[in-house]
Write a structure and sequence with these properties.
Blueprint: H1 13-28, E1 41-46, H2 52-63, E2 67-71, H3 85-92, E3 98-103, H4 108-115, E4 120-125, H5 131-145, E5 152-156, H6 163-172, E6 179-183, H7 192-199, E7 206-209, H8 212-215, E8 221-224, H9 235-241, H10 249-252, E9 260-262, H11 283-303, H12 336-339, E10 347-349, E11 355-357
Helix pairs in contact: 1-5, 1-11, 2-11, 3-4, 5-6, 5-11
Bound molecules: N-carbamoyl-L-aspartate.
N-carbamoyl-L-aspartate is lined by residues 52-53, 124, 130, 133, 163-164, 226, 228, 264-265.
Amino acid sequence: MKRSVIDTVDLSKEEVQGLLDTAMDIIADPAKYAHACAGKKLATLFFEPSTRTRMSFEAAMYELGGNVISMTDAGTSSATKGETVADTVKVVSNYVDIIAQRHPKAGAALVSAVNAQIPVINAGDGGHCHPTQTFADLLTIYREYGKMDGLTIGFCGDLLYGRTVHSLMSAMARYEDTKFVLISPDELKVPRHLIDDVVTPNSIPCEETASLEDALPKLDVLYMTRIQKERFDDIEQYERLKSSYVLDAEKMKLAKPDCIVMHPLPRVDEIAVEVDEDPRARYFEQTYNGKIMRMALILKLLGDQDPAHTYPGGPFSLWNEAMEDNAYRCTNPKCICAAERSIRHKYYVAKNGSKRCVYCEQ
Ligand code: NCD
């Protein structure tokens, strides 16, 4: 087992600052890094569609002088023959030095990290986490404000299934004087475990509202998200909720003059195209920052394999706390445990005393 990144909190706050510092140095002097990964290979294992995450990982590795092999469509892989994620990564570990993986089931990245002999980077596991998007988001905030402390962030849209929201909330909770405003319809509020494990223990002021207009004047960062159609069980519910929020030039008049607008992309209709011309729009810069932070992360994980690490996610990983007993079964249908019968169900005890699946945290 090598050091992997399942969520942002698998790196310490200091390590995240290290990534931001490396990223700033890459931006200042990209030539210095042009051969840093010469002779190394990255595999992008994408069991779920992606444009920018996969391409930016690949661009990142090429800009470090490394090479890439890719699985872009699970439909053409042995997954269609019933191969498990665990077997796939054991095989791929023989071909490359590092894996970036996206999968539609929550917890699939942890399964890979535990089974691979090389570092695994989670490029999105179902509606669970998406740490490298968060690293892109953090660099965007850092380049804007020159600091991470004292910011009020509004998350708007699909906070239930939006994995980028979950990872960014966990990451921002570690900075001083962070405030959250959670803007969503009732049906799409953030999962309970984020409130219990992230917001409450860190005493983060957190307001929940359904009104974007009410929230806007308070924000330093507005983080818009797409309603995640592919994660709904009930398509009628999606149809009802899909246009809950549309940010347009009129609404932007309510925002502070220096409030930046972020979005992990792709957008559907939640940000009107006219907002692109607003000097506060940052969503296309985020995509550039994503490539740079992925370069910084690949460099770190390839250079930083402490043999003393026997855990998949680093000293902060839930894996360290994982327990097993015969009675415990994860019942989340969106978890990798439901999709692959060979996985041994494990839990950790949450701060409120309840048992949660170590893979999906539900
Ligand atoms: C996000 C994702 O895949 O979760 N996209 C991305 O990686 N930039 C957001 C989304 O799909 O809505």
